[in-house]
Amino acid sequence: MTRLLVILPLLVVGMMNLPDDRGMVESWEGSLQLYGNEPFTRVALITDDQERWYLDMDEQEMNQLWRDNRGRIRITGVASKKCFQGKPRNFITVKEYEWLTSSRD
Questions:
Q1: Residue 13: which residues within 8 A CB-CB, separation 6 or more?
Q2: Which residue of 5, 55, 87, 104 is surrounded by the most CB atoms within 10 Å?
């Protein structure tokens, strides 16, 4: 019984340290679209598979990103689920982005 009391907490701590997919940095490609109504708008990335990923980043930087919209973009960040418009939605905490093509050329 004493050994079980010692081993059980060690197993629980060990299982808590197992790697999972949360917090992994990934990249997505697609185009940007604006969703919602003022003043509650959000910029989202629409992938080739038509998945919608809302961007979680500094508001001023997001506004600048939307104004500079140049077509296709690659966004690198961490995926998560958050509530927007009363429903759970896919979000990307943006680490960096890169314009792939320019619609203004």
A1: none
A2: 55
Map out the domains of the chain with their CATH numbers: 24-99 (2.40.50.140)
pLDDT for 54 equals 97
Residue 92 has pLDDT above 90, yes or no: yes
**Cα–Cα distance, 14 to 31 (Å, whole number):** 41
Q: Give Cα 42 to chain centroid, integer Å.
A: 13
Q: What is the pTM of this model?
A: 0.72
Q: How confident is the model at residue 17 (pLDDT cuts 50, 70, 90)?
A: very low
